[in-house]
Amino acid sequence: MNTLQWIDARSVEEAVALLSAPGPQGATIAKAGGLDLLDLMKEGILAPARIVNLQRIDALRGVDFSESAGLRIGALTTLADIANDATIRRRYPALAAAAAHAATAQIRNAATIGGNLLQRPRCWYFRH
Prior knowledge:
alpha/beta
C-alpha cells in the first residue's frame, strides 16, 4: 500500500480548497462512500497521494422538497435514504424503487447518490 494523506473536510469550501490546492506528488481524490474508490485502489487503477473525506460535510446530505423548487438530493445522501424517504416514495416512486433495487442492502447503506453518478466505468475492459 502506498503512503497517502487523509483529510476530513468540514465544509464544502474547505473541500474545494483542498481538492484544488497543489498537494503531495500524485492525485488528490474526493471520497464520499468510497466503495468505488476502494475497488480502484485495490486493483491498482488509482494510487492517490491525498484523499479528501467528504463524509463530515452535513450540507451535502439529505433530501429536501418544495413545490416551488422541486426535489433536492444532497450528494452524500445514501441510496438507502433515497429509497426510504417518504416524500420520494410518494412523489417520485420510480426513483425510490430504483434506489431500493440497486446493489445489496449493505452497499445501499454506504453508497451515496453523488458517488453513483460520478463512479468510473465498471466494465471488464476498463478494469483489466
